[in-house]
Every structure is written in structure tokens, then in C-alpha cells.
Amino acid sequence: MTDPLDIEARLQRLDPPRLAAFCAALTERLFPNFALFSRLVEFGDAPQMRQILNGVWDHLGNTGAKMNFEVQLDKVEANLPDLDEFDMYGASPALDAVLALFSTVTSILEGEAEEAVSVSNLSRECVAHFIEVTEGDDQMSDEELVRFINTHEMMQQEEAFQQDVLDLLEAGKTLNAARLRELRTLAQNEGVSNIGISDDD
User: Record's InterPro entries (predicted)?
Assistant: First the structure.
């Protein structure tokens, strides 16, 4: 199991563009969780959220496209599902995806490592909650459950993904277009989210 503190230490050493790219990559992988939920329960505006995330990638790639990220924060906030309103599991990973997008936009505006750390933890917790809900056993002690989650294949995939993103971001002196394309392709994961959800489901 990867030590989250190790990831945090590595994030603290990244410059603001790479921190925002880390957030964008994890949000990209979380995004199908919101897209599917939005379509199934007719909540929120998934195309608008997709557009904002695309705008983040464009901004990172210096394509010349302009987006007012201050304004986007309000739009993102309007798409946060209220867990008290939706009595279904799918609302939780959908909320995680939108919270990650909010942190990603905030990261572009503020350039602080804490937003990237927050998205890292959020993505791990999303996976942990999914494992607990789908495979957890009431007979397990808290310690057994934690061990089960931390050694689960899905959690190991999540940790390997975050490591791969960091490895990509730490390589090379500049965050060039080729590296960003590689990062985005990795994060898209052929349309499958960190908990195995696809909007095609």
C-alpha cells in the first residue's frame, strides 16, 4: 500500500501548473461517476461540467482558449448533488467527481498544493467507500475492513494510477503538450472511472 504522506510530500514539490494537472487527471478519471448519475436521475448539467474540465485541459496546454475560472466555480457548485436529497449510492461518487472539479478549478486560481492533496484523498476515499458498500462484511472488525480495503485490487489500481500521474508530472523540465496528452489519455482510462463505472453503462 502506498503511503498517502508520500504522495503529499511529492505534491508539495510540484509547481502550480503541475498541481493543477494532477487535479485534472484525477478529476478526469472520476468524471464518469458524475456523468452516469446525472443522466440516470436527470440531475445537473454534465455537458457543462465536461466543458469546464475540457477548459482546464486547454488552459494547461496553453491553447489560447480563455475561460473565466472564477465564474466556473459557481457553475460547478450548482452541480453538487445533495446526499440528503438522493437516497442512492450513486450520488456519493457523483459528488466526489464534482468536488474534485471544484478543487481543480480552485487549484488553477490559487496554485496551492492543498487542493491537489484534497483531490488525491477524495479519489482514494471514493474507491474505499465503493469497496465497503459493495464488498464489505458486517462481521468484519474495523481493522479487518481497513486491511481489506487497502489490499483490494481496486485500491491498488487507484494508488498505481496516482503514482503514474506523479511520475509523468515529475519527468522533464516542462509540462509540454505531449506529456499533457499522455496524462489525459491515462486519466481517461478508456471511459472507465476509478470505481469501474462508464457513462455507457
Answer: DUF416 (IPR007338), YP001051499.1-like_dom_sf (IPR023381)
